[in-house]
Structure prediction request, 343 residues.
Amino acid sequence: MRITAVTCVKNEGPFLLEWIAFNRLIGVTDFLFYSNNCSDGTDNLLDALADRGLVRHLPNPAQGRNYQMEALKDARRQDIVAEADWVWIADVDEFLNIHTGDHTIPALITTCGEPQAISASFQFFANDGIEAFADTPVISQFTRSHNPDLWCGEFAIEVKTLVRRDFPLQYFGAHRPFFKGNLAADQRPRWTDGSGRDVPHRFLVAANPRRIRRFPAQGARNFATLNHYALRSLDSYLVKNDRGDVNRENRTFDDTYWRERNDGGHFDTSIHRYLPALETALAELRRDPEIDALHRDCVARHITRRDTLLKRPEYRDMRDQLRNANALPPQEEALISSLGLAS
Prediction:
């Protein structure tokens, strides 16, 4: 089975090898990376990996527009995507945690009944008071998340989607694929959640704009969850804030984004089942002296950028604000206040 992962990156150098090694463990065979305006050595490391045939690395074709959507439009034309049996579109801070069979994508596909698409629900992992960046696997460091069935007062939680080659595709979205709205009912794809159940009809046909990329998470994660480490360490979050993100040029995050994803009420180490094999795979990648040196360079630049940012008063203020931010998401805080339950 040929499974291609497609992702967009900007200054993700310290985290690349873990993400590649992890995805290879779960069955990804090919990688298509788009990068733009990197200053931390991400592009250098990807080029070296591409030289070894481990990934394909292309410049993002977007010109000041929506970087991710422009890349996905281009990806569809690439043979590495067009010839794949399945396509997995995800970010470098997202890890597909498979709970069935041998914990690989092929096992998930089989357990879900061989559908044409599988959407896995997000589970946002909190920072949990970890301040310092550490060059160790992200999946080992962060073990607390929100209640997986409820996020910021919402039962419907965002998803990311595996897409089979014969899906009647109109275009790829970052969270889900889309098919033409006039497709006959008997031509619509079989599409399941992470428990092998058919996705809700209104999600399938994109009939609810408010929930075009989400559906209720309760009962949807028996076979797979998408662990999302959007915050990582406080150090890395500051650097992430500085670089913006791959979706919109020069976007930065305020403490609402942090607070919404820093709910640590639930403990979950199920993804640690992969750690022994992951550490072996990482060691194998870093046995190549050039790959190891380029990874170390990315780490050094990441730390240097943090130090540079913290010389600026606005970043010191941001760090202190995040350290002291209310542990409740804003929506929960507002609900408690409206009910007169605030102490």
